[in-house]
Write a structure and sequence with these properties.
Strand order of the largest sheet: 3-2-1-4-5-6-7
Strand content: 5-15%
Distance between the termini: 60 Å
Helix content: 40-55%
Radius of gyration: 21 Å
Number of helices: 11
Shape: globular
């Protein structure tokens, strides 16, 4: 008797189980979208790239958006576009936020809270990238990356976290990078800032868990996303890199990444790594077989 004949009776059971799984998954998808309706969400770096995609996703889900960035004109244009596309949604509120002006951040955060009287979710997405060799990079470039990708970010988080602690709940999303886990050649300033941000988020999660466990802290570490991140990156002398890398051009669709971030928030995940298998294997190699990882990175540096 063949294996099929022995197990044929399982087919109806397995088919029924699969149907239940599909229906449950679709229902969960519907529920997670509905869960954001009326939620107050701050998105930094919302004027372009992933931040813009996040704004589109959450506006479509019915959230009350506060979209923050340095370029208010772009934010206003995005707001008008979102209102036109989804007029039934809440009107997004543009908010000027310059992460290099750390002394102003706390007051701006308080202004954001006062708009709706509360904040439910903070998505720290703003940031800049970098391309250059360590020896040729001016120290001011390192300072710029750390200011925007780390010091400015944590000042926003601290201000909003105070609000979350006072109300007893909230969600903090820190958008980092796979390069917070591994460093690659010619990205030293960027990787260093993302390493620092990852460490801060991990500490914050641990500390809040003992004080306010209802506050969820999520780290999102994506791989390459098809945005203008490399175009707007800083070079070793502080000028704009102004080039679209091949890896960036062939990266993930920002809308897909934004949707996955929304799902991670709904599921109350602690960390989301969105990247190809090769990147995930590189993270494993770095910690399990560091010597092999160092050899691979050396070869990569020579190729570039």
């Amino acid at each position: 008797m063949s294996i099929f004949n022995q197990l044929h009776w399982l087919l109806p059971v397995s088919s029924f189980s699969w149907l239940i799984y599909v229906l449950t998954h679709k229902f969960a998808k519907l529920r997670y979208k509905e869960s954001f309706k009326g939620k107050v969400i701050i998105i930094t770096g919302a004027s372009s790239g992933l931040g813009e995609a996040l704004a589109r996703v959450f506006h479509r889900f019915g959230a009350k958006l506060i979209i923050a960035a340095r370029n208010v004109e772009k934010l206003t244009a995005l707001r008008d576009e979102l209102v036109e596309l989804y007029p039934e949604g809440f009107r997004p509120i543009p908010l000027k936020l310059d992460l290099t002006k750390i002394q102003d951040i706390r007051q701006i955060a308080q202004s954001a809270i006062s708009i709706h009287g509360k904040v439910d979710i903070l998505i720290n997405n703003a940031g800049i990238s970098y391309r250059g060799t360590i020896m040729s990079t001016d120290s001011t470039v390192y300072q710029s990356l750390m200011t925007v990708n780390y010091f400015g970010q944590i000042e926003v988080i601290k201000a909003i976290t105070e609000h979350f602690v006072s109300v007893g709940k909230g969600t903090i999303v820190g958008v980092g990078s796979v390069q917070s886990q591994i460093s690659i050649p010619y990205r030293s300033a960027y990787s260093a800032s993302k390493h620092a941000f990852q460490a801060f988020i991990d500490c914050l999660r641990a500390e809040l868990s003992s004080v306010r466990p209802e506050i969820n802290v999520i780290t999102v570490n994506p791989g390459y996303i098809k945005t203008n991140l490399s175009v707007n990156a800083l070079s070793s002398d502080g000028s704009l890199y102004n080039k679209m890398d091949e890896t960036t051009a062939s990266g993930m669709d920002p809308n897909v990444v934004a949707d996955e971030i929304a799902l991670a928030i709904y599921q109350q995940r602690k960390e989301l790594i969105m990247s190809p298998l090769s990147h995930k294997l590189a993270i494993i190699l770095r910690y399990m077989f560091p010597s092999l990882f160092f050899i691979l990175m050396s070869k990569r540096a020579k190729k570039q």
